[in-house]
Amino acid sequence: MLNLWFTEEWTPECRFSIKIKEHFHTEKSPFQQLDFFDSYEFGKFFTLDGIMMANEKDEFVYHDMISHVALATNPNIKKVLVIGGGDGGTVREITRYSHIEKIDMVEIDERVVRLCQKYLVQTSCKLEDPRVNLYFQDGLKFVEDAKEKSYDLILVDSTDPIGPGEGLFTKKFYTNCFRALSEDGILINQHESPYFDKEAGQMKRAHKRIKDLFPISKVYQFHIPTYPSGHWLFGFASKKYDPIADHKPEEWEKFGLKTKYYNSEIHKASFALPTFVKEMLEESE
Amino acid sequence: MLNLWFTEEWTPECRFSIKIKEHFHTEKSPFQQLDFFDSYEFGKFFTLDGIMMANEKDEFVYHDMISHVALATNPNIKKVLVIGGGDGGTVREITRYSHIEKIDMVEIDERVVRLCQKYLVQTSCKLEDPRVNLYFQDGLKFVEDAKEKSYDLILVDSTDPIGPGEGLFTKKFYTNCFRALSEDGILINQHESPYFDKEAGQMKRAHKRIKDLFPISKVYQFHIPTYPSGHWLFGFASKKYDPIADHKPEEWEKFGLKTKYYNSEIHKASFALPTFVKEMLEESE
Fold first, then answer.
1. CB-based contacts of A125: which residues, under 8 Å, 6+ apart?
2. CB contact, 8 Å: B195 with chain A?
3. Which of A96, B13, B86, B258 is most buried (CB neighbours < 10 A)?
4. Where, by residue number, is the active site (chains A, B) (predicted)?
């Protein structure tokens, strides 16, 4: 039997490997290398420049946690901007809220979107929703051009700050996000992992830049085993609402959404961070 | 340069690998295969039958979480039994409480203890504390012979339920723990991981057995990247105290212990479980 393994170097001295059933698509887009696989343990998944993006086994964790925390803090969010998110999973979760009026999704690489629509139908299944507008542009440029206060929520569903995702971790980008957000706007963004040095450094830099701009800036964590260390963070930045003080579990539960990771206790709990993570975030101040 | 890797099969289709500086000790004891390594990313670590037990980078997570949750629920714990825990890390944490009177540690394999004392001095550094009594015996037999109500806290710091650790996941063992615990006694035990099928099955079985015996039976989670999936659980079973309702953060903080993972917010938060984990635990009822 074919003994084929995909390996990701979490660090040069630590590797995570997945046995592959089939490597069924590979191509280079103008932006990056795209590869699609079927695997025994994680189902179908894809990588960008060799880095795991989403797999059928645990994408629910990431997409639950990027979406529902903001909607349970401000259930009146109407206009949403998703930056990146080519696999469609974030839009899938956001379209579950029938009261949301507009979802703009800006993905630099159309090939990611098209290939996920073809091959990763578990995540990319709601891009045809009439509220969704797809833009194949640079997210950095898109928010620069966006009208002031045009979104209630911006979700930065980006790759790591290397390659095409790099601009989405800059002060300029966060400044434009702030400008494009309504007076009670919320920004959720990749905060990487606190465990390995490389991601921890990225996390600290991202956090400092956001903290300097937004009145409320917090960090929350979750378990996603296929990302380096399995210990992953998102940033929650906001002009008005605090994710704990303004958490509205009763209102969120009225939406009646069935979720596999997120729930109202996890919402609160995910903002409680281990001491070493709190210290890292304080160092970044 | 030597290109040497230690690999653990988290499942037959998923591997975690660590680059090794030196494989400096190997032996077979009457119970298992013991190997000690030095690594680039995780410092020194050891394996039993090829399974990662403890490494210098993240053992603090495991040892914080096995120890302090019980002491912050009942700060008057005086008599502690550690079953397993040959690396000494659990005893290290427990000896930090000066009011604790007695710590019995029962490890089936004396070689684990002796080699960790020699090679893993970061964890095995408090076994000489005068309150510590070492017993090289089968933990199953030890609790069977223990006098009724002789411990306020039992910490089951065991290997997985395969090999020498197997008996420490049986109904007979938990029944004897119950008998050996004082009227306000607490039992903390390995609950494995909810992520991969094998560990999830072990978790469900362990949970059902304990739930049938103890009036209070909860599960809490933490991030430990070098265990399969990085998403790990302990069980908290108790005759009297609930880890949330009876949590005493002010009393615990008076102990003045500096911890790198555990803190009073993490205490509460770690009992909030993702929906898929809650459902697994309910299935086991």
1. A88, A92
2. yes
3. B86
4. 157 (proton acceptor)
